[in-house]
Amino acid sequence: MSAKDRLILALDVNDPEDAIAIVERFGEWVSTFKVGLELFTSAGPDIVRDIHARGGKVFLDLKFHDIPNTVVRAATVVTRLGVSMFNLHASGGFEMMKRTSEAVVETCLRENLPKPKIVAVTVLTSISQEEFKKDMGYQHGIRTHVKHLSAMAHRAGLDGVVASGHEVSAIRNSIGSGFIIVTPGIRPSWSPPDDQKRTMTPREAVHNGADYLVVGRAVLSQKEPEKALELILLELLSS
Ligand code: C5P
Description:
The chain has one domain: TIM Barrel (Alpha-Beta Barrel). The protein has twelve helices and eight strands. The chain has helices spanning 3-6, 16-26, 37-43, 46-53, 68-81, 94-111, 129-134, 142-155, 165-175, 202-208, 217-220, 225-237, and strands at residues 7-10, 32-35, 57-64, 85-89, 117-121, 160-162, 180-183, 212-215.
């Protein structure tokens, strides 16, 4: 996969004009833009259409986590928006994931639409091992949990998962190739972790088996964003 296709740039802004300015500024080097909770809540589905109109692909990162019927219905609407990828929480359960996957396929066949990739969020990259056990009450570690959720997403017919670089090789080894792994929490050696706890450099993440890397602040919060993006792309090209 080319470096341009591997990188997903997170549009973590709330003003649609700012988002479109980023798409126009970086569209030559990045194929896919991530629309998350902040931007979608402020700009609505029009922002997806506006990005498409400028030739960008959209990863709609709304992390659905609800009962099967609700997620199925929301996913059907998302499919009609034509996004290339969207996500839901694996912890929403097997039935929720399976029914969503089936409903999306049925909608695409019935309405002759391209099928978006559906990926399941495992454990957020902002959660530390300590928080996972102490605050969230799990007895086992994050890696075990991520492997378990990934296997469930795979059985449910999903295209892949969202997971930190630290769990990528465990997922790859247990599920094999062909299952997409999207990795956020990407921090080149020269950028600060911010609120992310389980970070990884672009090179390490790809080396461990990640397919797509989500990058936000490591580009957009830098003094020279173009330079930062160039350094990340170069790191990917030499990985
Ligand atoms: O700025 P930074 O690169 O940390 O941004 C990461 C982006 O990826 C944010 O938009 C965040 O919502 C998203 N994300 C994440 N961890 C996940 C899933 C998505 O950080 N597990």
